[in-house]
Design a protein that fits this description.
- There is one protein chain.
- By secondary structure, this protein is α/β, with parallel strands linked by helices.
- 47% of the residues lie in helices and 15% in strands.
- Helix 1 packs across helix 4.
């Protein structure tokens, strides 16, 4: 059987704030501990995490998720050229597709492929940022660490780029 390729028509079109609130609640209810490995977290959720090789490498392609609803199989594939810090965000991004997008798609086999920048991907990014860096804790740690990108990156276990974007999103200098 062929996987349905999710596209921009599959986005929720709800506000960024609503997605971020849902993400923080999901992280809490699923027992995610800030700063821990998303790979380990995903595997505890029965999500297989694997890596694709250079032969499959596509520029700016950091990962994708395949969902088989009928057989309850979920697999996230990551580039073998990205760091754990980047992978943590990518895994959270792919989990967003699972938790907020796949439920509204009437196909048993779904693939979310991160090749484009569109509303579907933005929603997954908003989810991932809030899942990994909840607003209240993030604001607290920015003050505690004096805004240090490296200290925030280490604490939240995400890239400095993810920290910069989260700070900008929350209007933190």
């Amino acid at each position: 059987m062929e996987y349905y390729k999710a596209n921009e028509n599959d986005c929720l079109n709800i506000s960024k704030k609503e997605i971020q609130i849902f993400a923080e609640k999901a992280a809490s209810s699923l027992g995610f501990i800030v700063g821990k490995s998303m790979k380990e977290f995903a595997e505890k959720q029965n999500i297989k995490v694997s890596y694709f090789s250079i032969e499959n490498e596509v520029e700016n392609h950091s990962g994708f998720i395949k969902i088989d609803k009928a057989n309850k199989k979920i697999e996230i594939e990551l580039s073998n050229f990205t760091t754990e810090l980047r992978n943590n965000f990518t895994i959270a991004h792919e989990i967003a597709h699972l938790l907020i997008h796949s439920k509204h798609i009437n196909h048993d086999l779904i693939c979310f492929d991160r090749h484009h920048s569109n509303r579907l991907e933005w929603e997954a990014n908003w989810f991932a940022a809030a899942f990994l860096m909840p607003e209240k804790l993030f604001r607290q740690k920015v003050k505690e660490f004096g805004g240090s990108l490296i200290n925030l990156s280490i604490y939240f276990n995400v890239s400095k780029i993810a920290i910069k974007i989260r700070k900008k999103d929350l209007n933190i200098d």
